[in-house]
Amino acid sequence: MEDLETRELRYFVAVAEELHFGRAAERLGMAQPPLSRAIHRLEHRLGARLFDRNRRGVALTEAGRVLLREATTALDAVAAAARRTRRAGNPAQPLVLATKAGASHELLQRLLDTVAAEPDIPPVEVLLCEVGEQAGLLRGGHADAALMHRPFDDLAGFDTEDLHIEGQVAILPAAHPFAVRDRLTLAEVRDVPDLPIARWPRLDGSYPDGPGPEVRTQSKLAQLVALGKTLLVIPASSRAWQWPEHVAVPVVDAPEVTTVIAWPPNSRSPAVAALVRSAAVLGEAAMPQAR
């Protein structure tokens, strides 16, 4: 069997996501008949039906669901290869470091100061993102490296260097009775009937069950805490974004969080290697203080 072409995969993904040949054709900027023929040829070559078609519409078969996962990964890898190649062809282009907005602020500032003093490292452009987005930015070639957090972030497939270990704090409304406490436990934090814990999305995008509000952005979360609608437990260094209406209280039995610098395992960039070395030196200095 011949190898699949990226054009075929793009056609298939458009139909799989739209579940409608007309909308997929419009999205691709082509007529519907050649798109339908292309999908039929793809099914014939693979020896598998990818879609169930009937008067009620279009649905993916099990084979189609498998190909959708694989095709999305393959197309992302092709796009990432193009982005990394373009950057490699321009050595003066800044390194892109992805990090969650508000996280590890002090460490990030020290790393940027260190890199600025190193003549063999290009300027670093910080790409701020929301919770859990660093992995996608790395895999898609939008970032050269990322600051991430174990056990919360998706580190699968990346090379990593541990930089910092820290405890966690509860961010509470300043007017809440718990705000005057000098410490809390996880059991206490989870048992506040008038202040449910905010729910962040899991790695697969779904939310855990619970009464707390679903949040995805720091700005939404900050306002909900200030309004007395929720609380959250986060790494202590992430409190850099807290508002005057917030109070941070240590949660003494919360799991420790490790900040890491992550990068693609196939990276051969001397600039990325130099950035990682600088981060590792900072990590060695910070690690004993964090324990």
UniProtKB/TrEMBL annotation:
Coiled-coil annotated residue ranges, if any: none
Domain of life, per lineage: Bacteria
Keywords: DNA-binding, Transcription, Transcription regulation
Domain HTH lysR-type: from-to ranges: 4-61
Pfam families in UniProt: HTH_1, LysR_substrate
Similarity annotation: Belongs to the LysR transcriptional regulatory family.
Record protein name field: Transcriptional regulator
Organism of this sequence: Actinoalloteichus hymeniacidonis
